Give the backbone structure.
Amino acid sequence: MSQTTTRLTRTEFGDLFAKRWYRSSSQGGYLYSRLCRPASGNMSMQAKKTVPIIFFEPDGKEHEVQAEVGKNLLDIAQDNNIELEGACGGELACATCHLIFEQDLYETLPEKEDEEDDMLDMAFELTETSRLGCQIVVNESFSGAKIRIPDDGY
């Protein structure tokens, strides 16, 4: 099977976004991707709202980070080089992003889905305030939150 690819440049599509079109003759379809950054300096980017949170590693080491409101805690930890595995990529198929919350913050979190509860059954150091980081989205009430990463047993 031969496959033909055509790549068009930014100039061909204008200055707003860099765009690439791929045409696959063997599949008879198109795949479109856009690089989401301004191609010129005339478009301002809004700053993302962040709140400070502190992750505590099992050995007691602290990491204070600026957590972007609207992102989940697994992504925030990984973006800040904090060791939180997330083996399933945040698809709710493991418990490797298990976190332990302070009681006050835990009580403000949305209810656990049954699937999350099932995955937490496999977690080390399970507590009453345990949740999976991939399921917890940061909001402004997280400002100053202290979140513990439990020992994974290794």
Q: What stands out?
A: Confidence is low (pLDDT under 50) at residues 1-44. The two ends are 47 Å apart (CA to CA).
